[in-house]
Amino acid sequence: MLSMICNGRLVDSRTLNGDYLNILIEDGIIVELLPPDSPIPKNSKIIDIKGNIVLPGLINAHTHGDVSLAKGLGDRWTLELLLNASPLTSETFRQEEKSLAAQLAAVEMVLNGCTTCYDLFSDFPLPDLQNLIAVGEAYKKVGMRAVLAPLIADRTFWQAVPNMIDDLPRDLRRQINDIKATPGDAIIKSVTHALKDWPLAKDSIYLGLAPTIPYHCEPTFFQTCRKLADEFNARIHSHLAESKLQAVVGQNLFGCSLTEHLDKLGVISSDFTAAHCVWLEQSDISRLSDRGAHVAHNPTSNLRLGTGIAKTKDMLNAGINVGIGTDASTCSDGLNMFEAMRMAAYVSRIHQPDPESWLSAEDVLRMATEGSAKALGLEDQIGRISPGFQADLVFIDTRSIQYLPLNNARRQVIFQENGSGVKDVMVAGEFVVRNRAPVGVDYDSLREQVTASAIRMGEISARQKTLVNKLEPLINKFCVGLSNTELPINRYVGS
Questions:
Q1: How many CB atoms are located within 10 Å of the residue 440 CB?
Q2: How far, in Å, CA of 6 to CA of 20, rounded?
Q3: How many CB atoms lie within 10 A of CB 433?
C-alpha cells in the first residue's frame, strides 16, 4: 500500500533542517523523498501534515521498563542507594505487573516521540520465557520496537561490593545474607531457553542479554553470556564505570579498570553496548573504540544520581558510536528522550570553555537516532528519514510555543522541545500516537490498572521497605567512604 506524507518540514541529523519534502511510503518503508509540488502517485493515501516538523523516530539506547511503576520512590539516591532499594522496585512483580510496567514505559516513550528502545528488563529471580514474552507483547501492543535484554547477575549488590556486608550490624548482616542470588547455572539455562525459543523477532521485538554490572557477575558467568550472544546472534549490554565506586571496586578486585577487565574476558566487541561510561580513562575509551563497541549515554540519570559527567565528546572523537538513553523512571524521573537530548548538549559544555569541544544540535540528534540505532544493531533499518528505511516518524506541531518563531528547526527540536509538541507518531507507516493519544492502548484503563498495582505493591513491600530504610544510611556511609579513594581521573565538576 502506498501513502504520501505531504507538506511536512523534515529534520534529521544530516542534511534536512526544516526542508519541505513529501515522503512516499510503501508497506511501511520510505520509498522516496519528493519535492512538495511532485505529482501524487495513483492509489496512494494522502496524509497532509501541514504545520508539522517531521523527525526520525527517537531511539532510547538504555532504559529499564520494569521499574516504571516505582516513580518517585527515591530522592537523594546515589546509584548504590538505588541498588540497595531494588527490593522495592520490581522484584515482587507478578507476570501481569511486569507486562503492565512495560506497557506504561512504552506509552510514556511513544508519547514523547520514541519509537524504539533497548530495555534492560529485570525478571527476578530469573528470566522466564513466558514473562519475557508478556513484556514483549506489551511493547507490541503499544506499537514500539524493542531489544529486550534480561538484566542478569549471579551476585547480589550487597555481595558484589567487597567488605560491605561485613561492615553491617549483625542482625542486618544476617538478613542480607538470607537474600540469595539465583545460581548462575540456573540463570544461563533459563536465558538459553528464552533465546532458543524467542517468538517475537518477526514483530521487531528482539531478545538480547544484559549482565548487569561487571563485578556483579563472576568472570565465567560473563564469559558464558558472551558465548550465548555469539551463538544466538544476540546483542549484549552492561553498565560500565557508571559511578566512582564502580571504578574503585574494579581496581580493587581486578587490578585494572572494569573496561580492561571485560576486554580480558573477551566480552567487548561490535555487538556490545556499555551504558553510562562516566569513569572511563583515556585508555578505556581507546579500548572501546578499538573493539567497535557502543556507548549509551544517559546524562539525565547521571545528574540525578550524582555519578559525574561522561566525556562524551572524547568518545565521539575517538570513533566510538554513542547513543542516548533515558535510563529508568527511578533514576531519571521520566522516559523523555527530548529531555535526555537537551541534557546531553548541556552537560558537554561544562568540561571546558571551548565551544569546539561541545556537542552540537546535529551531534545530539545523530546520537539519539542513528547512534542509538547502531547500538541496537538496527542501523540499516531505523534512525533516518531516507529511502529504504522504516517509516518510523515523529510529527511535531509547529504551532507549539517553542516554535514561535521558527528560526532553526533542528536546534529548536534539541534545545526547546520537551515532548509537549509531539502530535502524532508513526511506526512502520502506521500511527501509534494520534492527536497526542496512544492508538493501541486505552489510556484510562491503563491509568486504573497502574493505580491499583501501585497500591498492591505498596502493601506487599512494607517488610522490604523497613529493611531498605535501615540499610540506607549504613550503605551510604560505606560507599561514600570507599568512593573517597583517589583515582587518576575526576568526573565531578568543581572538585
A1: 17
A2: 9
A3: 25
Residues 292, 259 contacting (CB under 8 angstroms): no
CA distance 299 to 312: 10
- Reply yes or no on domain 2-54+387-436 having CATH 3.40.30.10: no
Longest dimension (CA), the chain: 78
User: Do residues 275 and 298 touch, judged by C-beta distance below 8 A?
Assistant: yes
Determine the Cα–Cα distance for residues 432 and 425; give it in Å rounded to an integer: 6
Q: CB-based contacts of 386: which residues, under 8 Å, 6+ apart?
A: 12, 30, 33
User: What is the pTM assigned to this prediction?
Assistant: 0.97
Residue 360 to residue 185: CA distance in whole angstroms: 46
Residue 214 near residue 260 (C-beta atoms within 8 A): no
pLDDT 10s digits, 317-376: 999 999 999 999 999 999 999 999 999 999 999 988 999 999 999 999 999 999 999 999
- Residue ranges per domain, the chain? 2-54+387-436, 56-375
Q: Which pLDDT tens digit goes with each residue over 202-217?
A: 999 999 999 999 999 9
How confident is the model over 435-456, as pLDDT tens digits? 999 999 999 999 999 999 888 8
- Mean of the per-residue pLDDT values for the chain? 95
Cell readout for 387 is 529511502
| pLDDT at 379 > cutoff 90 | yes
Cell (9 digits) for 37: 509540488
Using an 8 Å Cβ cutoff, are 67 and 330 in contact?
A: yes
| pLDDT for position 41 | 87
Asked whether 318 and 285 are in contact (CB, 8 A), the reply is yes
> How big is the CA angle at 150 (ends 146 and 152), to the nearest 5 degrees?
155
Q: First and final CA of the chain: distance in angstroms?
A: 59
CATH topology classification for 56-375: TIM Barrel (3.20.20)
Report the pLDDT value the prediction gives residue 125, as an integer from 0 to 100: 84
For 127, phi then psi, to 5°, come to -60, 130
Question: Checking DSSP bridges between strand 52-56 and strand 210-211, what pairing results, if any?
Answer: unpaired
Q: Which pLDDT does position 42 carry in this prediction?
A: 87
